[in-house]
Structures are given as structure tokens and as C-alpha cells.
TrEMBL record:
UniProt protein name: 23S rRNA (Uracil(1939)-C(5))-methyltransferase RlmD
DNA damage as UniProt keyword: no
Sections of the chain in a coiled coil: none
Keywords for the protein's UniProt record, in alphabetical order: Methyltransferase, S-adenosyl-L-methionine, Transferase
Entry keyword annotation includes Methyltransferase: yes
Family membership noted in the UniProt record: Belongs to the class I-like SAM-binding methyltransferase superfamily. RNA M5U methyltransferase family.
Length: 467
């Protein structure tokens, strides 16, 4: 006969001892027969918490008081940390953060059956704070109070951000001025319940090399006149803002950007430094938020790939050309593939500006374009892939493996999809020779990892036997 489950305390209070951290950096333990998740709680800690949500299998709890802290705990450098909850590791010592991220990668490799892969120590970021050079912030109101910030975990409630310590200082200045002017002009903000309002999101990109910024105001409608006053005031108060754009997104979904982007004031784009190269990027271009770590990765990818003069190299999910430019500078004939047309436009311009005529860029669906390229490229062509968090499709991996690249580098921001894709590549005879992880986002659970692969025909056979 089963023992009855312990009754939930009437006041919803719990006393917990944390067992481990999950991949999201949340403390995990068990209480009342359920898994409990709690922000800002570390292994071995004893604490008091209140229940926020209780499901059939899981409880979400809020930390009230740490009774017995971990020796790895430190004072938070952010006063809003527990309110925002965007940085679940911010109260954990830096060395422990790196260990946590390494264990993430190790678990992912083991779960995918990649037993021969060695996972070295994670390379720390030069800056723990102030490293974020971009921000995507929601704009809204709650109880008539203006809020500019991030969505609270698991909700559509906006947490008002003020002086985020992870942001480049220029980002925080811009947020303050925009907030001040919205209140002064009494501008309307997006109300998701009504599907109406002017200002929806504030997007900021900073070039730390030049201390200049590009700002994009995402709106629910055009209303150019109201926005012009805001844009002019912003440039007056923060002259480092060299470009202001409007993106119109009247849709009711969760997408941040709409299809229409309009230049408002200043330059059409932002000049920045990307590794060894000066580049330009537009209002919707993707670029890594941590410049120092991105430069390290570009150099490591180039060193591992060993591009050869006049030999072909393929750069998939190339963005504005960060890796492609470094490969082309070594003399390789580089073909970059990217789905976002604006990024391809800037990649081509960046190559031209840097005097590199040995690269070309193609806009289109990666699987379709790669299938066409593989038919023409010679066997052994060097390849680098840098996909989004979802990883590569099996079709893309199969096409790439069919080239049997002399060397291939996979750049990933998600250990789980990286491990999954490396296992697929292994089944096609491409084995991992080296792995290296980088702390691209200190204070958060995210980790960037690159893997070097080369042909290992014996792995194709061993994978088939295991099946």
C-alpha cells in the first residue's frame, strides 16, 4: 500500500534543499512528489520558498530566503536580478559558472553517444559585465506604468529594466532617454489585449570599437510624425546614436520584427569591428552580442579550418560574413549561404569594403542552395556551419558530409542540437577531432561551442553496427 503524499502547506511555503541545476540554470529538487524549479538557487543550498505555480508534475517556486548558502554563492552585481530573472547564474562565482557550462556540453555529448569526444575547460569571457552590445526590449504598460525591458520568465509581463549591468553603458543611456521621451510626449505603447498601440519594441546595437549605436523602433503602425520627435530628441540627447530606423509590425503574434523597415534619421547602417575587419550592418542584421569572444571564435575557426589559397570553402548560415571574411583573407575562394537577404547584402558589401574579391554570397534556403553547390564543389571542400539554436536539418548535414570535407567546423550556441548533429555527421563518416567551448554570455546558462571534424570512415561502420 502506497503512503499518502505529504499535504501541501496551507501558506504555500516550502523548505527546500537544492539537488542540482538544470540546463536553464534553475535550481532543481523534489517536494511533495514533484520536481521543483527555482531561480537563483544552487546545489546543496537550503532555502525557504513560496509556490508560484503547481502543476501535475512540476512546481515553480520563488526564493524567499537562503538559510544555508552554497560556498559558491556571491553577492549579486544587479539589484534587479531576482525580479528580472534573465541571468540565473549571476549569484554564482565565475569559476562555478564555467564548470556548469562545461558539464552541460559533457552531458549533451554523452547523451548523443559521442563517447570519444573530449570536452576541455570553457574559455572565460574577458568581461563578466558590460559585454552585451545589443538589446531587444519590449515596451508596454502595467497598471498605467511605462515599462521597457524583458518579459518575465514564462509570462507576457514586462520587467522594467534600469541600468542592466550586462549592457554596454551606451545601451542603458539610450533606454533612459527613450523612456523619458515616451512619457514626455505621452506616446501610446502596444497593448497586446487590444492589438493596438504605437511603440512595441526598442532594438539597440552598439559598436564598442566606435562607441556608436543603431536604434530600431518597432511600431504597431507607421505614425511617422510622432516617431520623428522621439528620434530627433534621442539623437540630441545621445549623439552617439548615428542611425535610427522604424520597423512596422502590426501583427498579433510574438514575432518582434515586421516586414517593413524604414530609415528615419542618420546613417543607413552601423559601422563596426568584427574580428580583423571593419564591417557595416543593418537594422535587422544578426551579430554576436559579445564582440571579444566572437573575435576569438573567428580566429579559432580560421586556425582549425586551415583555408588554402585558391581552394574552395563553404560558409553556411554566414550572416553578414564574419567568418567568411577571415577565410577569404587567407586566400580561400569562399561561398557564403544565408537565408536573410539583408545579411547577404551586407556580407557582399563588407567583402568589397575590405578588398576581398574572392568571396560570393547567396541568399536562399540553406538545404536547397547547398544541394546545388555540392553538385559543383570538389570533394574535400572545407566547410563551416553556424546555424541557429535549432541546429542543421538532416538534409543539410547529409549534403555537407557527402563532400567529405578535409576539415569542417561546426559553430553552435546549443549543446543539445550540436551533439545531435555531430552524431548524424558521425553516421556519415565525419568524426570530431577537437571541441572548444566559450563563455559568450556570462551570468546566463548559455554556452558557445565549436567542433572540428574530418573524415573518419570507420565511424560510419561503427554507427551502423550500434543501430
Amino acid at each position: 500500500m502506497k503512503k499518502p503524499a505529504p499535504k501541501q502547506p496551507r501558506d504555500n511555503h516550502l523548505e527546500l534543499t537544492i539537488d542540482h541545476l538544470n540546463d536553464d540554470g534553475l535550481g532543481v529538487c523534489r517536494s511533495m512528489g514533484k520536481e521543483v524549479l527555482i531561480w537563483g538557487a544552487f546545489p546543496g543550498e537550503k532555502l525557504e520558498a513560496t509556490i508560484l505555480h503547481k502543476g501535475q508534475r512540476r512546481i515553480i517556486a520563488h526564493r524567499q530566503r537562503v538559510i544555508q548558502p552554497s560556498p559558491l554563492r556571491r553577492p549579486s552585481p544587479c539589484r534587479q536580478a531576482q525580479t528580472c530573472q534573465g541571468c540565473p547564474l549571476i549569484e554564482l562565482q565565475p569559476r562555478a559558472q564555467l564548470d556548469f557550462k562545461r558539464q552541460q556540453v559533457i552531458r549533451a555529448m554523452q547523451d548523443a553517444g559521442l563517447k570519444r569526444v573530449t570536452v576541455p575547460e570553457v574559455i572565460a569571457a574577458p568581461q563578466e559585465l558590460g559585454y552585451r552590445t545589443s538589446a531587444k526590449l519590449a515596451i508596454g504598460r502595467r497598471h498605467r506604468h511605462l515599462r521597457i525591458g524583458l518579459y518575465r520568465r514564462g509570462s507576457h509581463e514586462i520587467v522594467d529594466l534600469k541600468n542592466c549591468p550586462l549592457h554596454h553603458p551606451l545601451i542603458n543611456r539610450i533606454i533612459d532617454v527613450v523612456r523619458e521621451e515616451i512619457l514626455h510626449q505621452k506616446l501610446s505603447v502596444w497593448d497586446p489585449r487590444q492589438g493596438d498601440g504605437l511603440l512595441r519594441y526598442l532594438l539597440i546595437r552598439v559598436s564598442p570599437a566606435n562607441n556608436r549605436a543603431l536604434v530600431t523602433l518597432v511600431t504597431g503602425r507607421r505614425d511617422y510624425r510622432s516617431l520623428t520627435h522621439l528620434a530627433k530628441w534621442l539623437q540630441k540627447k545621445v549623439p552617439e546614436v548615428v542611425a535610427i530606423h522604424q520597423n512596422v509590425n502590426p501583427g498579433s503574434g510574438n514575432a518582434i520584427l515586421g516586414r517593413e523597415t524604414l530609415k528615419m534619421l542618420g546613417a543607413p547602417d552601423l559601422r563596426d569591428q568584427l574580428g580583423d575587419f571593419t564591417v557595416h550592418l543593418g537594422p535587422t542584421s544578426f551579430l554576436q552580442v559579445n564582440h571579444d569572444q566572437a573575435a576569438r571564435i573567428y580566429h579559432q575557426v580560421t586556425d582549425w579550418l586551415q583555408p588554402q589559397k585558391d581552394e574552395p570553402a563553404l560558409d553556411l548560415y554566414c550572416g553578414i560574413g564574419g567568418i567568411a571574411l577571415h577565410l577569404a583573407a587567407k586566400g580561400a575562394e569562399v561561398t557564403g549561404v544565408e537565408m536573410v537577404e539583408e545579411a547577404v547584402h551586407y556580407a557582399a558589401r563588407n567583402a568589397k569594403r575590405n578588398g576581398l574579391d574572392n568571396c560570393r554570397f547567396i541568399a536562399g534556403d540553406t538545404a536547397r542552395v547547398v544541394a546545388e553547390l555540392v553538385a559543383r564543389l570538389p570533394s574535400g571542400t572545407r566547410v563551416v556551419v553556424n546555424p541557429p539554436r535549432t541546429g542543421c536539418t538532416p538534409e543539410v548535414l547529409e549534403q555537407v558530409a557527402s563532400l567529405q570535407p578535409k576539415k569542417m567546423v561546426y559553430v553552435s550556441c546549443n549543446p543539445q542540437t550540436l551533439a545531435r548533429d555531430l552524431a548524424i555527421l558521425e553516421s556519415h563518416g565525419m568524426g570530431v577531432d577537437k571541441l572548444q567551448s566559450y563563455d559568450m554570455f556570462p551570468q546566463t546558462p548559455h554556452v558557445e561551442t565549436i567542433a572540428l571534424l574530418s573524415p573518419h570512415p570507420e565511424l560510419r561502420k561503427s554507427r551502423k553496427k550500434r543501430k
